[in-house]
Amino acid sequence: MSEQMIERSPDPYNAEPEPGALIEQFLTPQALFYVRSHGPVPDLPADHRIEVSGIDVESRSFSVEELKSAFPTRMVTAVLQCAGNRRTDLQQVSKTSGDPWDVGAIGNAEWTGVHLADVLDAVGAPGASDLFVAFTGADEVDVEGKEAPFGVSIGMAKARAPDVLLAWAMNGEPLAPEHGAPLRMVVPGYAGVRSAKWLTRIEVRDAPSDAPIQAHDYKLFPADVTSETVDWSQGLTINAMPLNAAICSPGSGESLPAGGVRIEGYAIAYDRGISRVEVSVNGGRDWRQATFADDPEARWGWRRWSLDATLAKGRQHLVVRAFDEAGQGQPERPDTMWNFAGYLCTAWHHVHVLVE
Amino acid sequence: MSEQMIERSPDPYNAEPEPGALIEQFLTPQALFYVRSHGPVPDLPADHRIEVSGIDVESRSFSVEELKSAFPTRMVTAVLQCAGNRRTDLQQVSKTSGDPWDVGAIGNAEWTGVHLADVLDAVGAPGASDLFVAFTGADEVDVEGKEAPFGVSIGMAKARAPDVLLAWAMNGEPLAPEHGAPLRMVVPGYAGVRSAKWLTRIEVRDAPSDAPIQAHDYKLFPADVTSETVDWSQGLTINAMPLNAAICSPGSGESLPAGGVRIEGYAIAYDRGISRVEVSVNGGRDWRQATFADDPEARWGWRRWSLDATLAKGRQHLVVRAFDEAGQGQPERPDTMWNFAGYLCTAWHHVHVLVE
């Protein structure tokens, strides 16, 4: 692991990069890409095969080499982001379950693989939009004290959408073990949990996966639902990730010399463009327009932004907020979106610094 | 006009329904559908023809009868909504231009017509996503003191998307004069301004329409831009309409008897589903889940909701907020989205009532 990774949990291993290191490049290096594990990292054999089966499917299995030769190679630049990214901001409102992610449980990579749609076509899978495609990983997961293989699912329409990949490479390099080697799903725009790592099985189903990760986790509930009262059959299954923006540099609590500072960060809005990013250096009283560092051609990529400002001596309060191409803005306060599992914090992001 | 219409401007005629009348039915009757005119209502002859022309297009014209016989008839249930709906909430922050719309500059109708995509195919129009399709109306419009025909445009990808119609009927009735008879565009999910009424011309272009309505109006700017400083070549062209929710009944300022009250309204989120609607009867301190009145099958329709509550005597403060299927919430305060033209107010909606 890079020294710039901050461990959030040793077992399973969960870590995110220092925000300043994260924002230095458009494509996040594997060594700086957040790791969200739900169990020990599996060590899969060289002849590992992925099974494809399910409703009206001709069951088959593929090695990674067979996938490479059977289907066109596709490349997609896409963010993956944990549904719990920025959970610490919700934990300042009130305690939540889950690891205390800061703003780094997100990364942007160029993924190489084959389209799930091509694989589904090859096994004659039906396309009805009321069907689901489930993914099983080789990792064993403990949910509410029960061990079960990692399992999730997505709807058939998304499964057949362009850009959903079975991927073997990130940024032109083979996947590292902690990122899902030899093969993982990449479901652009959806919460990272739907992009199963260490893929072992794809199944066409008439209902969502009943694996614990899909059925008893990663759902959004109103603020009055608690871990004691939760009915997991209810709630919103977290798929598409909402509009968000974060300041990555300077970091929270950082001491800076007086004078000019470049404020930098990222913004993201599922399948919508970002129309503008506004930064305040006085706690939200006045706002200035940030400049985009990345062009908008990567539909599923993030947009990094920056603003050059001059900060006076003393404690300074930086804030960022973004608007998407529908003119949609972010809610201001984390208490308006608090939920017991600490998902989807999209409130304005605040950073306090000391200028000396 | 219905007695339940509230006039916002006599010339051009602009009016919205009483909110309580608006929310009584899933499909808004024509007589209760908001009217946004930019000039006098044209009176088109029976043999009115719509011209289709532009880049790489075989120029043709069609009467409405010819459109009906040449192409399959399509029906789409869709909301149309003025970009200035809820402008009064922004005007309470600070003055804006534009008519003082309350929550009624929106309606939901079943539209009958033909797909624009079918018409584009019939004239051999190209499909390149960097092209635009412009619509001209028979209405003469005054923008910044210049008279010009009403003209707008949308991108080719949206123009060719399913559900974009040349429509001659609302809720099974011929279009009323003020709603665009004999033929209007219906661009589901987009601000109503893109759905040109009294359609006279469709043109494939390599740039957006340069008509004043497209080029010098209906754009979103940051709060520090004013009508004096605005550069209309900048700003976000308002197309997709963001997440919003409003209380329609009881109405603001209404006096109610003590006891049970049904609180009702609508929610809308462009192409996303609404995942939940929360209502507060104590000014936002506590929130309860509203019940949906309409199923989510109408992709472009609104979702009406209701909550039964018991209100104590005195002044009571009701608030609504919605979340979409990405878990996206609404910003809390209108000052965080204020803009000089008063567009896209999506702040939590407040209603004050007196319980006697």
TrEMBL record, chains A, B:
GO molecular function, one term: molybdenum ion binding
Matches recorded under InterPro entries: Ig_E-set, MoCF_OxRdtse_dimer, Mopterin_OxRdtase_euk, OxRdtase_Mopterin-bd_dom, OxRdtase_Mopterin-bd_sf
Keywords, comma-separated and alphabetical: Metal-binding, Molybdenum, Oxidoreductase
The keyword Metal-binding belongs to this UniProt entry's keyword annotation: yes
Oxidoreductase molybdopterin-binding domain ranges (all copies): 38-211
A GO biological-process term: sulfur compound metabolic process
Protein name: Molybdopterin oxidoreductase
